[in-house]
Specification:
Length: 510
């Protein structure tokens, strides 16, 4: 896949994620690596027409701990009492919805897993529980493997897995009913198009999928449509509440971006409402707070759930921050100019600054490394794990340069901010394997060796963004969503490259 700007095109070779073999529980006999094939994208997601198209690559094997299930003798005892007493599994979608399911012989982790798409309405569509159970795991692996995923334990050794989600509507330990919403469809992790990856497991092993008592699937590559009969929800589906208005920990907003869109030198928070596709602005105040849900401003009337990797910065050099985003269906990169009055240009007035291939990049973030007042764009190449910088020139992007030689697929939530008060932005990112937070100081167009600024637990946070929200501090501040509660927190910058004690600035629903 190539990534093109208006001035350059760079080829990228596919690669396959390596497996972690030591002390792992195998999830399928004769498990083989899936080949990362060329992916044909529909208007809203990955193709699922029964051909060889593969909307995701190899997925890391999941242990009992990864599934949130008991390990060792306890797990085996639970499975031994179950026999083949499979729950009455239904499709993971709302009653009456028709979806296209597909698999293939070398589907990872096995051909029993199903990838689901629904044409142009795939992205951010509700995902519901297949049967009653208890949520045993809500996890975000960032740009690798299953990405954001949920596991439900249905008892008797049976569990279901829902992967590549864009957001969560549940939390670990929650009791859920069949048909109750648990998340929304996305393209997180090792995914190249919006779809739901779904598994039914028994004793950790991925089993033949059955819906409403009938087996679904066949040998080799196959695809077919099915209408959901998940129609017996016994409790009302939880309605996500607006950010700042309370909430139950559901993540109703996705793709947060920081940008000063009202010209007061304090960053505002832009975010996409997953259920409507609307883009909202939460104005920042110099005391380190953002507007409540009741005072938010609509700046995009719809369709933003078809965009991804939103980031904010002054890409035109006119002193006004702009929004940049990837159009998932085409891979094009678009610039929405900021007007300094809490608005951005409409879709008809947006500017094309990348002609294609940008859905092969992840973790896009505005990152001005040379201090020239024009935002540059940093992004991770999914196939290689390399980090590239695309210098801004005021009208678009110049030819990219490599600023990270590899391994950046192991980092998540990249954000650009001046954390050490140097006048150049630094790169902040979470190490997925440890949950540690690192700063990579900006230095004359490149990055200096990293410095640890958070000792752990940061893989429980998402949508990290940076900017000057608390004007009394000497440097930019960090904002992040807590996955388990949906709360929004501010971590004030200290001016010396560190972060102060966090404070809650959004009580739920984020």
């Amino acid at each position: 896949m190539s990534v093109e700007t208006t001035t350059t095109a760079t080829a990228a070779a596919p690669s396959v994620f390596s497996r972690l073999m030591s002390r792992r529980v195998r999830i399928a006999t004769g498990l083989v690596c899936a080949t990362v094939a060329a992916v044909a994208l529909s208007a809203g997601g990955a193709s699922a027409d029964g051909g060889p198209e593969d909307p995701h690559g190899d997925l890391t094997e999941l242990t009992a701990a990864d599934l949130g299930l008991p390990e060792g003798p306890q797990m085996m005892a639970m499975a031994a009492t179950s026999g083949d007493d499979r729950p009455d599994f239904q499709m993971p979608f709302k009653c009456g919805e028709t979806w296209q399911g597909a698999s293939r012989a070398h589907h990872s982790p096995s051909a029993n897993a199903i990838d689901w798409t629904q044409g142009g309405s795939t992205v951010n569509s509700p995902v519901v529980a297949s049967a009653d159970g208890v949520v045993s795991k809500v996890r975000d692996l960032g740009g690798s493997s299953y990405g954001k995923y949920v596991v439900i334990n249905h008892g008797g050794g049976w569990s279901t897995v829902y992967a590549h989600l864009n957001g969560f509507n549940t939390s670990t330990g929650a009791t859920v009913k069949a048909g109750q919403q648990i998340g929304i469809v996305g393209s997180t992790g090792n995914s190249s198009g919006a779809h739901l990856h779904y598994e039914q497991r028994h004793d950790l092993v991925d089993r033949r999928t059955v819906f409403n008592g009938s087996a679904f699937g066949g040998s080799g590559s196959w695809s077919k449509s099915l209408t959901s009969k998940n129609c017996e929800t016994k409790t009302p589906e939880p309605k996500p509440e607006g950010p700042g208005d309370g909430g139950t920990g559901s993540t109703g907003m996705v793709d947060l971006a920081s940008a000063d869109l009202n010209g007061d030198n304090v960053i505002d928070v832009a975010a996409v409402e997953a259920s409507t596709g609307k883009l909202w602005l939460y104005k920042g105040a110099p005391n380190g707070t953002v507007a409540s849900g009741g005072n938010r401003v609509l700046i995009g009337s719809g369709g933003w759930n078809g965009m991804s990797n939103l980031t904010g910065g002054d890409f035109t050099g006119d002193g006004k921050d702009d929004i940049v985003a990837v159009e998932e269906s085409t891979g094009k990169l678009w610039l929405y100019k900021g007007a300094d009055n809490s608005t951005i240009s409409s879709g008809g007035s947006r500017v094309l600054i990348g002609s294609g291939g940008w859905n092969g990049m992840s973790n896009l973030t505005a990152l001005n490394l040379n201090g020239d007042k024009i935002a540059d764009l940093a992004a991770v190449e999914k196939s290689t794990g390399k980090l590239y910088l695309y210098p801004g020139n005021g009208t678009g992007l110049n030819a990219r340069k490599e600023i990270g030689s590899g391994g950046w697929n192991g980092m998540s939530n990249l954000t650009g901010m001046d954390l050490n008060n140097s006048g150049r932005q630094d790169l902040v990112a979470v190490e997925k394997s440890t949950g540690k937070l690192f700063m990579y100081p900006g230095d004359k167009g490149y990055l200096s060796p990293r410095i640890q600024i958070g000792s752990g637990g940061w893989n429980g946070m998402s949508d990290l963004i940076g900017g000057d929200l608390l004007n009394s501090q000497l440097s930019d501040d960090l904002i992040a969503v807590q996955n388990s509660t949906g709360k929004l927190f501010l971590y004030p910058g200290t001016g010396s490259g560190g972060l102060g004690a966090r404070k809650e600035i959004g009580v739920g629903g984020w």
